[in-house]
Amino acid sequence: MTIKESYELAKKEYQKWGINVDEVLEQLKKVPVSIHCWQGDDVGGFEVKKGAFSGGIDVTGNYPGKARTPNELRSDLEKALSLIPGKHRVNLHAIYAETNGEVVERDQLEPKHFENWVNWAKKNELGLDFNPTLFSHEKATDGLTLSHPNQEIREFWINHCIAVRKIAEYFGKELGTPALTNIWIPDGYKDMPSDRLTPRVRLKESLDKIFEEKIDEQYNIDAIESKLFGIGSESYVVGSHEFYLGYALKNNKLCLLDTGHYHPTETVSNKISSMLLFSDKLALHVSRPVRWDSDHVVTLDDELKEIALEIVRNDALDKVMIGLDFFDASINRVAAWTIGTRNMIKAILYAMLVPNEHLKQLQEEGNFTERLALIEEFKTYPFGAIWHYYCEQMGVPVKETWLEDVKKYEYEVLLKR
Ligand code: RNT
Ligand code: ZN
């Protein structure tokens, strides 16, 4: 049976439930995922004067072939994008600036340092998102940045964030789609704090200064990312969930929820509906925590499906900006992007192929038996046949055949590095 024949059969199964699969696929094409560039080089970046890797996160593994230059990174991204169905976005960090061999301090970065990225994004029809980099730097060695007691250090990072927002505005203007600029800081303490308030007061003031200059949301959208703990900030993190939730609501900013930044049994899927009642939009860093905020490659697990269900059944595809955040250096990095991004898209498709309205109705009627029975039965509906057809239709490899492309690329390009 061909892919198309399997698709036609599967389609009928869904049709019985009133799901129009052709329409679903049209809708799916329009859902962008923001792919993080930093999986390609283990969050290294291309600064001339590189600071030691730091910031409460860690990358483990030494798989050969990591990108050493912006061109290598772009070429690896292109390879991954050729294996992922749909039109997507690329998420950059400030450390991916290109400064022509010159040392440019982070508070001095300008749009021109990202010209190559913008030209590349135009050529590949990609939107760009952005992040200031407040780690791996001599002014962040003690793990404090925007909440630092030293005013000069705070100002340096404030100016960095302002510079980054202006660069993001340039992305938005050039590419015709707003850039999401997400601020994440590592600030916190390894051991019990004696004062939780003062650093938070300073963080609040720093954010106020960063956002003083209004930038048209047509070009740049600001987000702030919270965290529960990190390596070296096990006891206290300044930018906690409550801190940013409050800040975002009061100042009309987006909360960015990273799926690895909560207590192990606390799920982001359960937060989306609540948060969207009080803000128009929110952003995600979809990641996979294994025991801790470990940033493993995203798999098609229950929580990923639940996140996708929450977005789809609450009609929130325009409200939730989906981005990825993982970095595994122990496997082929192009494969890591491909696996994680394909899984994110698969999860959205899965959620679109569930009779969501019917299931909602069952719950309203108190029919929990049928609710559970159908949720479970739908797990083995022929979702795979629809996914394979989608890949074929979008001109990307079907099933595991993409692995051949990656192996060839590894042999011909990555292993020569
Ligand atoms: C760290 C945050 C943050 C980073 C990236 C590199 O815990 O998740 O988003 O992973 O900015
Ligand atoms: Zn994150």
TrEMBL record:
Principal EC category: isomerase
InterPro entries recorded: L-rhamnose_isomerase, Rhamnose_isomerase, Xyl_isomerase-like_sf
Cofactor(s) listed: Mn(2+)
Regions annotated as coiled coil: none
UniProt KW keywords: Cytoplasm, Isomerase, Manganese, Metal-binding, Rhamnose metabolism
Cofactor: record remark: Binds 1 Mn(2+) ion per subunit.
Reaction(s) the record says it catalyses: L-rhamnopyranose = L-rhamnulose
EC number: 5.3.1.14
Chain residues that bind Mn(2+): H261, D293, D295
The UniProt record lists the keyword Chloroplast: no
Pfam families: RhaA
Source organism superkingdom: Bacteria
Signal peptide bounds: none
UniProt-annotated location(s): Cytoplasm
Keyword Metal-binding: yes
GO molecular function: L-rhamnose isomerase activity
Pathway: Carbohydrate degradation; L-rhamnose degradation; glycerone phosphate from L-rhamnose: step 1/3
Main localization, broad class: cytoplasm
Its biological purpose: Catalyzes the interconversion of L-rhamnose and L-rhamnulose.
Family, as annotated: Belongs to the rhamnose isomerase family.
Listed name of the protein: L-rhamnose isomerase
Lineage: Bacteria, Bacillati, Bacillota, Bacilli, Bacillales
